[in-house]
Amino acid sequence: MKSQSTLRIARVVAGKDLQIEFRSHVVINRIVPFAALVMVMFAFALDDDLLLARVAGGLVWLATLFSLFIIVQRSFAIETADGALDALRVAGVNPAGIFLGKALALVVQLFLLEITLIGAAIVLYRVHVEPSSAVLLVTCMFCATLGLAFVGTIFGGLAAGMRGRETLLPLLMLPAIAPVLIGATKATEAAFNTSGMVTSEGWPWVGLLAVFAAVFGVGGLSAFSSLIEE
Amino acid sequence: MKSQSTLRIARVVAGKDLQIEFRSHVVINRIVPFAALVMVMFAFALDDDLLLARVAGGLVWLATLFSLFIIVQRSFAIETADGALDALRVAGVNPAGIFLGKALALVVQLFLLEITLIGAAIVLYRVHVEPSSAVLLVTCMFCATLGLAFVGTIFGGLAAGMRGRETLLPLLMLPAIAPVLIGATKATEAAFNTSGMVTSEGWPWVGLLAVFAAVFGVGGLSAFSSLIEE
Amino acid sequence: MKTGNIVEMHDAVVVYGDFPALAGMTFSVRKGEILLLQGPNGAGKSTLLRTCAGLTPIFRGTAEVLGHDLRTERDLVRHRVGFLGHSNGLFSDLTIRENVMFWSRLVDAGDDETEAALERMGIGGRLADLRVGELSAGQKRRCSLANLVVRRAELWLLDEPHAGLDGGGRDELDAILRQAVASGATVILASHELERTRQLATRVVQVSGGQILDASL
Amino acid sequence: MKTGNIVEMHDAVVVYGDFPALAGMTFSVRKGEILLLQGPNGAGKSTLLRTCAGLTPIFRGTAEVLGHDLRTERDLVRHRVGFLGHSNGLFSDLTIRENVMFWSRLVDAGDDETEAALERMGIGGRLADLRVGELSAGQKRRCSLANLVVRRAELWLLDEPHAGLDGGGRDELDAILRQAVASGATVILASHELERTRQLATRVVQVSGGQILDASL
Amino acid sequence: MYGDNDMNHDSTPDAVGGVATTTSRTIGVLAIVAMTWVLVSGLFLTPADINQGDAVRIMYVHVPTAWIAYLAFIVTGAASLAWLLKKSPSLAFDRVAGASAEVGVLFMAMTLISGSLWGRLTWGTFWVWDPRLTTTAFLFVTYIGYLAVRGLGGSPQQRAQRSAVIASLAVLEIPLVHFSVVLWRSLHQSASVLRPDGDVKMDGLMLFTLFSGVLAFTFTFLWLVIHRQRMLLMRDVVGEKGLEAAIRERRRDHGGVVA
Ligand code: HEM
Ligand SMILES: Nc1ncnc2c1ncn2[C@@H]1O[C@H](COP(=O)(O)OP(=O)(O)OP(=O)(O)O)[C@@H](O)[C@H]1O
Ligand SMILES: Nc1ncnc2c1ncn2[C@@H]1O[C@H](COP(=O)(O)OP(=O)(O)OP(=O)(O)O)[C@@H](O)[C@H]1O
Ligand SMILES: [Mg+2]
Ligand SMILES: [Mg+2]
User: Which helix (H) or strand (E) covers residue C47, if one does?
Assistant: First the structure.
């Protein structure tokens, strides 16, 4: 019953966030181009095709990471701009529901972003994805996205109430997310068969990502109330 | 007389911004650690010492760039949080003065950041700076910082009034800043004598940076009023 | 200490950093009251309301709302309380209707109630489909009041609810509050509009220096 | 069309997107008036004030403020106008005193004037050294009024200036405005506090649907 | 109840004041003694390492600080969990957590510095891309963020609540740091572990000195935490006198204007 209502709340909250995105096209019109631009710039800065293909995996996730900061910030700017988060808290809206909802909306937006970036990598950095490694790639994206979304929601909610949040958020999120970045990079390189990795080597890393996502998912569900409380 | 008052306004505005930084220690306590961590992460993601030394210059400036987004956002969050920028506009405070003031404050904070990052690069990436190239490095940092601060102030002011600014700013700034990134990278690599560049090759790039800074400085001084007026 | 009272506060201290915004407050609110908190700026009215809403933790003393201890059973209280603070809690990228809809979905209220609330606050029709970001101050306030109406709370905590509303809106708000009380709710509001709220309130309490000065009828 | 009037607006139209918030406004304000704009929510009062302050551009028609055309000579007007909108324009990381100091430095006012303004608004002493972020709603409002006072403007444009102030603060504000007018300034304010502002104003103007309905004395 | 617990916990001078001072004085003395011994033995009595020379002496600072930093962060995590799980906890938990984290950051900084000096002497560089080093850097910054959150003010409970969540998540990083070497090797094919850990040849005295170093830093840690959390206690006006005085003053303040 509780969980049922958690899911209902989550659906309503996620629906609202996606509705706002649908209205304002922030991710589509701004963050995707931004991330793509970042990748182009990397390519410029390195300007060395071999090298580029080698580090392609890392660059994809670096670009994702920096876009994540912006998306999370946006996602909670919506809530705090006019004290909506306060209103939700007072109304006793199930925090676990809010957490799931916001995370879900983030997952959708991030996934969209990552697909674009992988595509960009294939075009810009001339990496190849064999059908065989496609499944690894997708699983990796999925797990990484979950992890990023959970961490983003946790720290977004944490920083939401605080002053100078625009600077606090990156500082808090970066160390927490580093494992995802590394794991996802390795797995992606494996999928790309770059920097001397073969597909099979990718799976342990995906496992790491899955564990990470699970930990922060559970952590968020149980701790989010204490985060947005007071 | 006008210009004189411009300078006075600039001093007051810059003083205010630095006072706020002094009060909240945002750059020291949050952005510097963030940037340092970004560099550690880059290095770790690449994990290849030779390569690392080669791209050290680029990484320093990439880290600076991403910190710049945060600093600029912070710098204008201060102004827009409670409509202070509006108040300044209505009061007819000389916009050129505001521009100079905010840019000046940014310069100070950025310079502080860059020194830390260069230091980090020397320690972490094991690059060497001969005394001979030190002067190149400093000039490069100076010109680049000016350029970044001017661009940051221009687009920060532009985005300030708009909704969803937290997402608009990076998209607007990135392309404008790319030249600085590239120029500074090349000059720094020259100073580090990495990726096969010798010190003397750095100066043309510094020239580019200087021109860039000059252009955006003049542009900002003359256009800022029309930017913050909607 | 179970009493029939809606709010029962005893020697409550609320501190911000090291500043006791509430310096030992003791007071109680009976069911069906419309209690007016009045006092100078910085007296502690908003803090008191936020504390009753469970937004600000109590540092010392006890506070019961709707028969539940705020420190241990806050979650049982919350969904029965409606709070309107200085900010409106609206999503500026959504329209008025979408904002109110969001809330009615959260509390499982029907769409007809949404429409009713919009009509009631005079923001139906053309306005209802405007982005909240495009509204005037008073129209925003009306929207957040509509959000409150659909919640059908048992305890209404209102911080300067009349601010920004025009004459008509103020009369409407008063009517809404009287009606809510008639149907069993209780209202506590802080306001500086003495002429109007004195007529509305069933009891006036003087707040100053973080404590209740005197409770005059 | 140079007249002695402080504000001279003729058939002014202001649009947000495609919505004409001001639908052809014609009115004028003489020197030394305290003009009260009243009207329902969404009437256009704030827009009118923002237009006079040069914050919102005119789409059609003409508007002169202090004898300068708003479209061509806005910069000559601005530093002579003081505007207080719905937001306070404060820096929440600085103390009250630092905030007011900032403004007095901008306008080259002396520190004694700062202190005087603080005292006047009842935010001197202990309060003056508090971070603005730690203030109550009314204390913030008082601070932004102090910012306004040190500016010594010729034309004061105030949007619901009494909101959030307690009784004492409202009396003080009225006194400040009367004094400003006595020393040659002019005041236009929008408000829903009719009882109070009707006594303060020398003229009341009904705004509705983006137009002046009637100018009754 | 927050308040009352806090009152009887903190108000009675001997709860923090008395007991703490006597205890902390003894601990302080112990710390000084042990530290002196470590200095003497570490610098003069213990032999230089065969291949590392005198550089090895850094170990007596490097390793203990690292381990005690772990200990500090674990204490922070435990206190934070207690705060989160107990129905009506005392703010004392929060203060201990905060104090312990501060000391932990201090020690971790010493680990980083001593480590990079050691690295300069043995590997010829301040830093290598070793997972242990990198994860340590992450851990360090995590707790800088934790302290940043604590510095934000608001009500004490608010600060406690938020920082407690971070602390209980952050403590999970410690195993990551500790096992990073192993983990990395198992996950990472081209394992770039430049240094097999702890392969420092040790004779008995060295080992003994190392562990007396651990002891010395433990005492130092305890001493610092006790004092620090007492200072924090002074800062939040939880001490009865402080709070009462503040309340009295607050009650007198009627904003100048009261009907
Ligand atoms: C910046 C450089 C360094 C950092 C950040 C660092 C960090 C650490 C940390 C966090 C530990 C605790 C490991 C644990 O028990 O979980 C540790 C232990 C240790 N470190 Fe370092 N270290 C650095 C450089 C060095 C160097 C250059 C040496 C020797 C050549 C060294 C030798 C040791 C030894 C022997 C231990 C104890 C045995 C062990 O647990 O591995 N470290 N270091
Ligand atoms: N940014 C905006 N975009 C589009 N329309 C707007 C915007 N701001 C205001 N409006 C519209 O302009 C009209 C006038 O707004 P204004 O704020 O001037 O009203 P007001 O008289 O101040 O009302 P209130 O008494 O509630 O403050 C309103 O109908 C509002 O919907
Ligand atoms: N976030 C905060 N940090 C520190 N002190 C605060 C904070 N918020 C409020 N205060 C202090 O608490 C006291 C009470 O504030 P509160 O907002 O409750 O007053 P109020 O009665 O609502 O005043 P107003 O009538 O102006 O709204 C004020 O003196 C204020 O300085
Ligand atoms: Mg208030
Ligand atoms: Mg208005």
Answer: helix C45-52
> Does residue A81 sit at the C interface (CB-CB below 8 Å)?
yes
The answer to whether the CB of B77 falls within 8 A of the CB of B102 is: no
Task: Give the model's pLDDT for residue E66.
Answer: 94
Give E11's DSSP letter.
I
3-state secondary structure of D152: coil
Q: Position of tokens 């009287």?
A: C178
Show residues of chain C in contact with B163, CB under 8 Å: 92-93, 133
∠ CA C103-C108-C114, nearest 5°, is 55
Is the separation of the CB atoms in C192 and D166 below 8 Å? yes
E165, E215 Cβ separation under 8 angstroms: no
From C41, C137, C138, residue closest to D138, measured CB to CB? C41
pLDDT the model gives residue E1: 28
**pLDDT greater than 50 at residue B1:** no
Mean pLDDT of E57-70: 91
**CA angle, corner B35, sides to B33 and B41, nearest 5?**
100
Task: Give the closest ligand to the alpha carbon of residue C164.
Answer: 2
d(CA D104, CA D87): 19
Secondary structure element (H or E) that encloses residue A206, with its range: helix A202-228
Are E256 and D169 within 8 A, CB to CB? no
Which DSSP string do the residues of E185-197 spell out, in sequence order?
HHH-SS----S-T
Kindly tell me if the per-residue pLDDT of E167 is higher than 70. yes
Give bridge partners of residue E53 from the DSSP assignment: E49
- Report the sign of the C-alpha dihedral through residues D89, D91, D92, D95, in that order: negative
Residue E148: pLDDT band by 50, 70, 90 thresholds? confident
Going by C-beta distance under 8 Å and a sequence separation of 6 or more, which residues neighbour residue C123?
A: C96, C139, C142, C143, C146
Q: Check residue C68 and report its DSSP letter.
A: E
Nearest CA to ligand 2 atom 6: C134
DSSP reduced 3-state for A85: helix
* Range of weakest confidence among B164-173, C28-37, C187-196, D186-195: B164-173
d(CA E211, CA C72): 46
Nearest-angstrom CA–CA distance, D182 and A154: 57
Rounded distance, CA B148 to CA B143, Å?
9
- Residue A230: predicted pLDDT: 57
pLDDT digits (tens, 9 = 90+) for E206-217: 888 888 889 899
The angle that helices A131-160 and A165-192 make with each other, rounded to 10 degrees, is: 170
- From the CA of E250, how many Å to the nearest CA of chain B? 25
| Per-residue pLDDT at E129 exceeds 50 | yes
Structure tokens at B43: 């290095």
Q: What is the pLDDT of residue C22?
A: 92
Instruction: Give the global pTM.
Output: 0.86
ipTM: 0.84
Q: What is the 3-state secondary structure (H, E, C) of chain B?
A: CHHHHHHHHHHHHHHHHHHHHHHHCHHHHHHHHHHHHHHHHHHHHHCCHHHHHHHHHHHHHHHHHHHHHHHHHHHHHHHHCCCHHHHHHHCCCCHHHHHHHHHHHHHHHHHHHHHHHHHHHHHHCCCCCCHHHHHHHHHHHHHHHHHHHHHHHHHHHHHHCCCCHHHHHHHHHHHHHHHHHHHHHHHHHHHHCCCCCCHHHHHHHHHHHHHHHHHHHHHHHHHHHHHHCC
Confidence check: pLDDT of E9 > 70: no
Torsion, Cα A99 A105 A107 A112, to 10 degrees, reads: -170
Extract the tokens encoding B139.
């000039």
The residue count for chain E? 259
Which residue would you say has higher pLDDT here, C49 or E235? C49
Q: Which residue of B has its CA nearest to A23?
A: B164
Q: Would you give the DSSP letter of residue D131?
A: B
Q: Which residue of E has its CA nearest to A162?
A: E152
CA A122 to CA A111: how far, in whole Å? Answer: 17
